[in-house]
Amino acid sequence: MPLISLWTSNPGAVTDLSIEQIVATAGDGKLRDETTCSVELRQFLAQVGSEQLAAYAKYCLTDSFSKSGLVLQDVVNELGRRLDYKVSNGRYQGVTGRIGFDGIWRGPDGADLVVEVKTTDAYRIPLDTIAAYRDRLRDAGEIGRDASVLIVVGREDTGELEAQVRGSRHAWDFRLISVDALLKLVELKESTEAGLTGASRFVNPMPFTGGQRGE
Fold first, then answer.
1. Which residues, 6+ apart, have CB-to-CB distance to 5 below 8 Å?
2. How many CB atoms neighbour CB 163 within 10 A?
3. What are the pLDDT digits (tens) for 55-78?
4. Sign of the torsion formed by the C-alpha atoms of 95, 129, 79 and 54
5. CATH topology assigned to domain 86-201
6. Are 16 and 10 in contact (CB under 8 A)?
7. Which site among 16, 21, 178, 192 is 20 to 30 Å from 59 CA-CA?
8. What's the whole-model pTM score?
9. What is the pLDDT of residue 109?
10. Which conformational region is residue 105 in: left (phi greater than 0), alpha (psi within -120 to 50 degrees), or beta?
11. Which of these, 207, 202, 145, lies nearest to 171 by C-alpha position?
């Protein structure tokens, strides 16, 4: 039974599954760009509670499985929507002639973020490559001229990556946040009735000075 049909008829049965099992029930179970599996997974993530998104993100980070990084990418983009960003999902895999990005988030005031999702900061991230993608998106008119880059990292300790960014020429327009801190922003937004969102802390952000962003 397709994922969305199963979710509609028996949501309890679906929420009892791990995100790995849920992906296997979507489409043909093979998560690739422009497939029914991808479409159903994203539709499903848009309908579940944020506490489920948190569980799925943590599963991707602690119980690595095939395509777990791609699933985390979709979960992070859905968290962006929960923070009132208008989100465009990126591709899972780069292809010739297409600009690589994991997500584009447009804030309520029109400021754009090019989002890059990393499961770990154990390896040096090619900042120049990410910046080049951002510049190509600007030139194509898909983002504003003042767009920044937001790197979402699975690990809570982002110290090594912070040092890498601080020591680069990208310190003024690259931002960092851990998945855990992003989840806390969503929780904070949903627990208040004031109408203000944690997302505002990323709109027109100040230059990078170190420390975990969003906490």
1. none
2. 12
3. 999 999 998 888 999 999 999 999
4. positive
5. type ii restriction endonuclease, domain 2 (3.40.1560)
6. no
7. 192
8. 0.85
9. 86
10. beta
11. 207
Tell which residue, 156, 95, 94, 150, has the closest CA to residue 117.
150
Question: What is the chain's alpha carbon radius of gyration, rounded to the nearest angstrom?
Answer: 17
Locate 146 and state its tokens.
């003042």
Sign of the four-CA dihedral 48, 78, 121, 31: positive
Helix (H) or strand (E) holding 150: strand 148-153
Cα–Cα separations (whole angstroms), residue 57 to 46, 77, 86, 102, 190: 14, 11, 20, 15, 18
Q: How many CB atoms lie within 10 A of CB 191?
A: 7
CA distance 78 to 85: 9
Q: Is 52 exposed, middle or buried (0-12, 13-18, 19+ CB in 10 A)?
A: middle
